[in-house]
Write a structure and sequence with these properties.
Bound molecules: adenosine-3'-5'-diphosphate
Radius of gyration: 19 Å
Distance between the termini: 21 Å
Order of helices and strands: EEEHEHHHHEHEHHHEHHHHHHH
CATH topology of one domain: Rossmann fold
Strand content: 5-15%
Shape: globular
Largest sheet: 4 strands, parallel
Number of helices: 16
Strand order of the largest sheet: 5-4-6-7
Amino acid sequence: MAASPDADDVDMAELPLETRCPPSPLRQYGGFWWPEPILPGVVAARAGFGPRPSDVFLASFPKSGTTWLKALAFATLHRADHPTHSLDHPLRRRNPHCVEFLEGLFALSPPAIKGGDVFAAHPSPRVIATHIPYSLLPERVTAEGAGCKLVYVCRDPKDALVSMWVFAKKMAAADEDGSPRDAFTIEDAFELFCDGRFPGGPQWAHVSGYWEASRRRPEKVLFLRYEEMLLDPVGKVRKLAEFMGCAFSEDEEAAGVGKDIVELCSIDALRNMEVNKNGTQKYAKNEDYFRKGVAGDWSNHMKPAMAARLDKIVEDALQGSGFTF
Ligand code: A3P
């Protein structure tokens, strides 16, 4: 992987460019591919973000279960202030993306604010999401003694690929530049993904960075798998609560608080909330974040030979890392 460039020394126009992956051009920075509108936020976050020991980061490769993890972590961490059954629960009024992305908020903030720390006014404990690979996180976040905790959710690359392909076509369809985005086929997406030329790609390098960090620093980096969350959501929420330092009490266990959180954050519950039927985020409609929510949907879109080829690329790239999908 290329060395991380100096955060203050990035001329976007000089970076390698990929224009075949809608909806935005991608630029390669620090060994990973970034949507152009987001990259300035990565650079600004690396330069200006001031972490607090109580911060919890939710990290992921795009389309790996970020929205779900945001909902679960938010509902778990704030359950004292916002009981799950409350009709006024923030998740009933706001999409889970009310948990801001580190690089997204920096990218969207006016230059005068972006130059400082756009999260400075956010009250602790902060839950902050990110698609930034471990190697490119602000060093102050990963430094020994920083105290910050990171939860990573990883997903089968084939499902992440298909999920992003569908999502990208929806986002691109909303563009008004008239370009024929429907022509972005699964074969196009597949070739780009295999080359690592996908938002956040290469996916396997993204995953293995956090995997290695979770082995080295298990008290600071929790590694979750989307597929295991689907199989045992209550068990994973219990683990998440323990990791975040707010384990369920015996009374909460007896009252089924974990199960209540899982139900509040289930894809069907979230999908059917009014805010998610109608609202929008900066780049997409809220409803577009809730599609199937299953493991293995890739088989409805990719031929077995494609799957075998991608599996081999990933397996080869992960040789020696100790990680397998
Ligand atoms: P599919 O497109 O395969 O259905 P991200 O949140 O990182 O963008 O990931 C999106 C994927 O997570 C989509 O996968 C989406 O349907 C799924 N998802 C969203 N909310 C979910 C939930 N509450 N439970 C399980 N999966 C969810």
